[in-house]
Design brief:
Blueprint: H1 2-16, H2 19-25, E1 37-39, E2 45-47, E3 56-61, H3 70-81, E4 87-92, H4 104-114, H5 134-142, E5 154-157, E6 163-167, H6 176-187
Parallel strand pairs: 3-4
Antiparallel strand pairs: 1-2, 3-5, 5-6
Length: about 190
C-alpha cells in the first residue's frame, strides 16, 4: 500500500512538472522541430512552435556563395506558398568556406536588398559540429547521412513538426522533387 501511494505521488509530481523541464530531459529523437527557436536577424526570436501545423523549410544560407542566387528561388517559393501555410526560414552560417563573414547588416543587405527576401531570417548560427545550433544537432541526429555539407542545404519539416526530407545544396528551390515534397506537406 505504501509503495502504491509513493508511486501515485511520483506520477502526480511528474504530471505537474513544467513541460519545459520534461522536454529538456528528453532524448533528441523524442523531440520535434517545435522544441527549437532561433534568434532572429533583426532581434527577437523565431520559435518553430509558433508555426505548428505548417510545413517549414529551414535553409542554411550564405551571402558570398555560388548558391546565393537561390535566395531568389526561395523568395519565389515563399511568394507562391506562404498563403497556403509554407514557412521558410533562412539561417545564415559561416561554416562552409567562410562565405558569411559579415554581421546582421551585411546579411540583410544581401538577402533583403539584393534578393528582396521577405521570409524570416535567423541570426547567424553554426550548422555543423559540436557548436552547431540545437536544431541542426537534432536534424543531424534524425538524418545523419543528410546533414548539411555546404550552404543552402534544405530541411523540410512537416505539419507534425517531424523532419520529412532533406535536400542538398545543389537542389534548386524550383526543383520538382522539392516542390512535390512541399505540396505533399501542404496537402497533409
Amino acid at each position: 500500500m505504501m509503495m502504491r501511494r509513493t508511486l501515485l505521488l511520483a506520477l502526480a509530481g511528474l504530471a505537474a512538472a513544467p513541460r519545459t523541464l520534461v522536454a529538456q530531459a528528453a532524448p533528441m529523437s523524442h523531440l520535434s522541430a517545435y522544441a527549437f527557436r532561433f534568434g532572429a536577424l533583426n532581434g527577437g526570436d523565431i520559435a518553430l512552435a509558433d508555426f505548428a501545423g505548417k510545413p517549414i523549410l529551414v535553409v542554411n544560407t550564405a551571402s558570398q556563395c555560388g548558391y546565393t542566387p537561390q535566395y531568389a528561388g526561395l523568395q519565389a517559393l515563399w511568394t507562391r506558398y506562404k498563403d497556403r501555410g509554407l514557412v521558410i526560414i533562412g539561417v545564415p552560417s559561416n561554416d562552409f568556406g567562410g562565405q558569411e563573414p559579415g554581421g546582421a547588416p551585411e546579411i540583410a543587405r544581401t538577402a533583403q536588398d539584393d534578393y528582396h527576401v521577405t521570409f524570416p531570417l535567423a541570426a547567424k548560427a553554426a550548422v555543423k559540429g559540436g557548436g552547431a545550433h540545437p536544431f541542426y544537432r537534432w536534424a543531424a541526429a534524425e538524418r545523419p547521412r543528410e546533414a548539411p555539407r555546404w550552404n543552402f542545404h534544405k530541411y523540410l519539416i512537416g505539419r507534425d513538426g517531424r523532419l520529412k526530407a532533406a535536400f542538398a545544396s545543389a537542389v534548386d528551390p524550383s526543383d520538382p522533387g522539392l516542390i512535390v515534397a512541399i505540396e505533399t506537406e501542404l496537402g497533409a
